[in-house]
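Morning!

This is the sequence you dropped in the shared folder:
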Amino acid sequence: MKVVAFIKNKKAILSCIAAMVIILLGAFAFVFTDQDKTGAKVDRSNAIQVAKSLPAEQVIPVASPDFFTEYRLERDKIRSERSDLLRESIKSATSDEARQKAQDIMLKMVMDKQRETEIESLIKARGFADVLVFIKENSVSAVVKTSSLSREEVVQVADVISRVAGVKAEDITISAKP
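The structure's back. Tokens below.
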């Protein structure tokens, strides 16, 4: 009795698999033919035009991003990957302590990002073209887009960083980059 039921189930499974294979083959055949959905022949004669190169006067050179733009993109990419890992850690944590630790790290990361953005905006508001701020455990570094910084400008930048990040002046590093 069990053997007969097993054979019938095996035949049903094989029939289903065969039907799915036939359906998939039909779908592939339809996608890769030169006919559109109405059955009309598709004209691909203009497809070669895409591969033709533009005349030199129509090519617009793209300026490469500067250090500040590249670093921001890289920093955001790294933070995004780190956030994803922390979210996974929070989801799969086996204890409340592990979950809380991952949540604390994520919260600190978000707060640091917020403070970095705020500091960068406040420094730009002082007339600098661009700036990158890096908040670490007990220190902050800033790279200001300028050829050089006067003592007064360094004091202004350090004051903003100290107020927003809550670090001492001796824990702040400021450099200039054109």
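Headline: The two ends are 85 Å apart (CA to CA).

More detail when I'm at my desk.
O.
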